[in-house]
Amino acid sequence: MVDPTVTTLRVESKTRRADGVVTLQLADPLGRRLADWAPGAHVDLVLPQGVTRQYSLCGDRWDAYSYRVGVLREPDGRGGSAYVHDELWPGDLVGVGAPRNNFNLLPSEQYLFVAGGIGITPILPMIAQADLLGADWRLLYGGRSRGSMAFLDELEVHGDRVRVHPQDEAGLLPLHEFLDEPRAGVKVYCCGPAPLLDAMEAACAGWPRYALRIERFVAAHEGPPALEGPFEVELARTGATVTVSPGESVLDAVRTVGADTLSSCRQGICGTCETPVLAGVPDHRDSLLDDDARALGDCMYICVSRSRTPRLVLDL
Ligand code: FES
């Protein structure tokens, strides 16, 4: 189905920022203001052939008339980033979804930011906000080499708050040294490739619960589903019931009985398909909900999550 939140924006400029990284500046062709967003937010870019990709907003959140996204060329990707790099140019139009935020910057007086590669993009507006609010913050930024690390020029103004750590010069990120001892009241934000996020989760094991917040661009690996066999899903608004077979997603199953549910990543990382749960116990398999939200069980991401009980009732 067509996503009503997608608007058509024009590429105002395209700028090379590092090896394999470009930024796009996007604006409404008629100069209208854009939907508001906060640090940590991402948008969908809707590319030809219905390909949709999520990119963090990395520009000035107080600029109401343009968005900036940073795009890494992914040689093993499914073609979205190659299209942006090779075929999208200033003046072209592109579908852009409304900003969504699964990686909010929570209030704190002290932040530690860790970014790996293109994971710097959601961190940039967080730094701007932390700076504006006078918070104490530091950034550890790693990448394969200096040439592959975008926005080093923009980060220079922050002096020794920013520690740049190219792997070919300095090895792996010194996470334990950077984090130091666990401390209450410090918020730790990390974005980057999965091995870095896994290493951060291990390094922050002794920190207060929820001190660490991460954003995954690739879904975390989940074990086998709680129920091996099929289960039933009832759509409370229409009364329809559908059986979800083992190889099928809840999203696909409910669409066969007429549910108008939006989706984007289909990996449990973007938040588009969030659905309220009225009865039954979901088997959460997304990369978005924390342990408390999972235990609450009142919503689920139906592109990946399944059921622990023979029947689920959803507010659809
Ligand atoms: S479609 Fe992205 S979380 Fe379900």
TrEMBL record:
Ranges where the 2Fe-2S ferredoxin-type domain occurs: 231-316
PANTHER family the UniProt entry points to: CARNITINE MONOOXYGENASE REDUCTASE SUBUNIT, NADH OXIDOREDUCTASE HCR
Keywords for this protein: 2Fe-2S, Flavoprotein, Iron, Iron-sulfur, Metal-binding, Oxidoreductase
Residue ranges of every copy of the FAD-binding FR-type domain listed in the record: 4-106
Cofactor: FAD
MF (Gene Ontology): oxidoreductase activity
EC number: 1.-.-.-
Gene3D superfamilies in the record: 3.10.20.30, Nucleotide-binding domain of ferredoxin-NADP reductase (FNR) module (3.40.50.80), Translation factors (2.40.30.10)
Annotated protein name in UniProt: PDR/VanB family oxidoreductase
Family annotation (InterPro entries): 2Fe-2S_ferredoxin-like_sf, 2Fe-2S_ferredoxin-type, 2Fe2S_fd_BS, Beta-grasp_dom_sf, FAD-bd_FR_type, FNR_nucleotide-bd, MRET, Riboflavin_synthase-like_b-brl
